[in-house]
Amino acid sequence: MSIMFVSIITGLVVVISALLNYLFSLLQILFKKPLPPKSAVEIDSKEHIYVHPDFANGTQDLSSLDAKTLYEVILHGIQLGGNRPHFSYRQSSDQTFKSYSHKQVFEIIKEIGSGIVNTGLQPSSETIYGIYSSASINYALCLYSAWPYSMVPIGIYDSLGRDGVKFIIRQSAVELIFADNLQRVKNLI
After folding, report:
1. For residue 85, which of 60, 97, 99, 127 is within the disulfide window of CB 3.0 to 4.6 Å?
2. Which of 83, 86, 87, 70 has its CA nearest to residue 148?
3. Tens of pLDDT along 135-173?
4. Domain residues of the chain, as ranges?
């Protein structure tokens, strides 16, 4: 009888301890002081213009950055970010995110840009190429690849319609077009 009594008391102590622990955790959540929201700040009540709170008193002074081109900004980002994630993506919502570091992104965009130059196009602001793709990491990498070579990327979108796509291509005189699927390639023909 005494072993059974000790077992029952021990079981009750365990159950009561678990309930008290749960109750204490719940009370901590309920009475935890919330973080103050960091929302946009209205800087012009007449025009209803809002800015991030860090810029409520004007823009930050970027003169210390000493970057004059987008390429120099990328180099600065590599110095700051190094092997930390730069682009994160996933192929579908049921997959985990994968990331490219700042250094990996830089290597990829140099390879894409080098490939463009190896097609015979010149690394110059006179060289214009198109990107006909959905918004994705590949779109961004193709876009960024222009900057180390001073080339000009042009976005081409399905929402322009077939005639709009052809108009953009003719007007901008693109010499190369990246497309993310076969249907978009067929739309160009």
Report:
1. 99
2. 70
3. 889 999 999 999 999 999 999 988 888 888 889 999 999
4. 69-188
